Amino acid sequence: MIRFLSILLLLSSVQIAVGQTKVIMVFDLINNTIDSIVPREYDKTIDMDHTDFFIGIFNKKIAPLDENPPIINVFEETNYTLKVRAKDNFNITDYPIRTSIKISKLVNDTLRTSCSGSMVSRRHVLTAAHCYGSFATDLKYTPLKVCPSYDDGLSNNKLPCSWVSKLYIYKNWSFDGEDFAILELVDPIGIQTGWIGIGYNTDDNFYKEPVFHKFSYPGLPNFKDPIQYNGDTLYHSFGQLNKANESYIGVIGANANKGESGSSIVLVESEKAYTSYGVLTWSSYDHNRITQRTFNDLKNIIIKDNIPPYKDFSSIGLSIYPNPAADFIKIKANEQNHPLSYQLIDIHGQVLQSHELTNSFDKISISQLTNGLYYLKIKTTSGLQTIPFMKQSY
């Protein structure tokens, strides 16, 4: 891949945050339409942030990902490993491995390998913009399909795939700092797989100490890696990064293969954080770094879908149980936060039920609901609280 370099005018940090604001293009792959989003303003004084992760309802098994720098099977003069087939060391349906996505294009009725990606909400995949070309007329409505934990040329029969409904990319995006794409899915498969967070940190040194992991689908080999990849098998690598600048984070001395583009570089703090800080762009192992600006732009696309279906609200003296539930739910509250009434709302914002509560022991019937994510908006003696819950018939 030939990389063209340009000389950029250096601006102050405030000027960059304002001057680089770009429209985000929205390609509807179902209805063949184009729309756009104007990015929102954000607080430029926040030096770090991330979205929440969710392990999914498929199971509660978490892969034992090493948080110590590797010392064997590493690229020369690095603390970063060569790729190894993921299933050789892990159950690939464990979290967060099952958030790893193989992306395929439908061309002449045949699915062809495209790129890699990561679930970042129940309905969104983070990947790279360059995987989808410049979106000339013959490219922009190409059907796309995503599959989690794809391996050995087969979709995982325990986890669902989905077609893509919309694609979000910056208008006139740049390889240097804007090589991001969000795929919006027809089906909310992230409820099953879970998802990782996205995050940023303005301190370059932040990236050089912790251990990062990558799960991806390498395709064609490059001249530095003679292994024959074909894009149909999940691979794993991990270690410490040694490069961080305004646009990129990565590993000097490592290399990547076609098909890995769009795969996340993920910071793992076992059961505390699983966060993507960038996506692979170049075979030199450079990842477009998620910055303060791109974080806020991406977050605003996925925010409506990255609320975990269940969350611990016990600290405010209010919770729902059981969760997930099949037939009914109850509200548990302390004496200082007594529930007075509730509204049951679906993911589209439609109010399905609205009732007064005589006491917190009242059962709320959900047997008539279809499986999926819902919200209970509860009015209490101390205010309003909205709690998500999952309807799941067994």
Structure commentary:
The chain has about 400 residues and is mostly beta strands. The chain folds into two domains: about 280 residues, Thrombin, subunit H (Beta Barrel), CATH 2.40.10.10; about 80 residues, Immunoglobulin-like, CATH 2.60.40. The N terminus is likely disordered.
Number of strands: 25
Q: According to CATH, what is the topology of the largest domain?
A: Thrombin, subunit H
Helix and strand composition category: mainly beta
Number of helices: 3
Low-confidence stretches: 1-19
What is the straight-line distance between the termini?
Answer: 50 Å
> What CATH architecture of the largest domain do you see?
Beta Barrel
Radius of gyration: 22 Å
Envelope shape? globular
What is the count of distinct domains? 2
- Name of the top-level CATH class of the largest domain: Mainly Beta
| CATH homologous superfamily (4th level) name of the largest domain | Trypsin-like serine proteases
